[in-house]
Amino acid sequence: MKKYILLVDDDTEELMIFLDALNKVPGDFKCIYASTPQQAIEILKWAVPDYIFIDFNLPRLNGLQFLSILKSEEKLSHARKFLYSSHISEDLSKMAKVLGATGCIEKTDTIGILAVELRSIFREYRQAG
User: Fold this and answer.
1) What is the pLDDT of residues 34-79, one digit of tens each?
2) Which CATH architecture has domain 3-124?
3) What is the distance between the alpha carbons of residues 17 and 31, in angstroms, rounded to a whole number?
4) Rounded to the nearest 10 degrees, how much is the dihedral formed by the CA atoms of 122, 125, 127, 129?
5) I need a labelling partner for 24 at 20 to 30 A (CA). Which of 3, 16, 35, 123 fits?
6) E-state strands within the chain
7) DSSP H or E stretch at residue 38
8) Any idea of the CA torsion for 121, 83, 103, 34, to the nearest 10 degrees?
9) Distance, CA of 43 to CA of 113 (rounded, Å)
10) How many angstroms from the chain centroid is the CA of residue 99?
11) Is 84 in contact with 56 (CB distance < 8 Å)?
């Protein structure tokens, strides 16, 4: 069964790394990309992804503020949301989870490391669901 992913990140280089890592993960995935929270909100009017990866450092709204907006969207309650950033402190991780994040991922430019992280996330929820 195809899984839909929304990646919200203003850095297109991060998109390429994410897509390369995703291609190394077994499964059928379709990745939609938004470069701003506003663009993501427009996409979410017609798309209901299974997974949402949100960069912390976004223009106008940061990742936590965007998680807060998503928390009130009932149709997204089943979506697994992950804060995605270069550095995730313990406090940032706790706050993200309070705002509805399933977890957090630290960005890496090493595609293999990111692929292992994504594989673990998708395996965990495949077994749970």
Assistant:
1) 999 999 999 999 999 999 999 999 988 999 999 999 999 999 999 9
2) 3-Layer(aba) Sandwich (3.40)
3) 13
4) -130
5) 35
6) 3-8, 29-34, 51-55, 80-85, 103-106
7) helix 37-43
8) -40
9) 28
10) 14
11) yes
Nearest in space to 76 (alpha carbons), one of 4, 127, 2: 4
Per-residue tokens: 77: 């309650």
CA distances from 2 to 10, 15, 77, 100, 120 (A): 25, 20, 19, 23, 17
* Amino acid of residue 76: L
* Integer Cα distance of 15 and 1 in angstroms: 23
Q: How many CA atoms lie less than 13 Å away from 38 in the CB half-sphere?
A: 3
Q: Position 116: which residue type?
A: V
What CA–CA distance (Å, rounded) separates 57 from 59? 7
Whether the model pTM is above 0.90:
yes
Strands 51-55 and 103-106, bridge-based pairing: unpaired
In degrees, rounded to 5, the angle at the alpha carbon of residue 16 between the alpha carbons of residues 10 and 20 is: 145
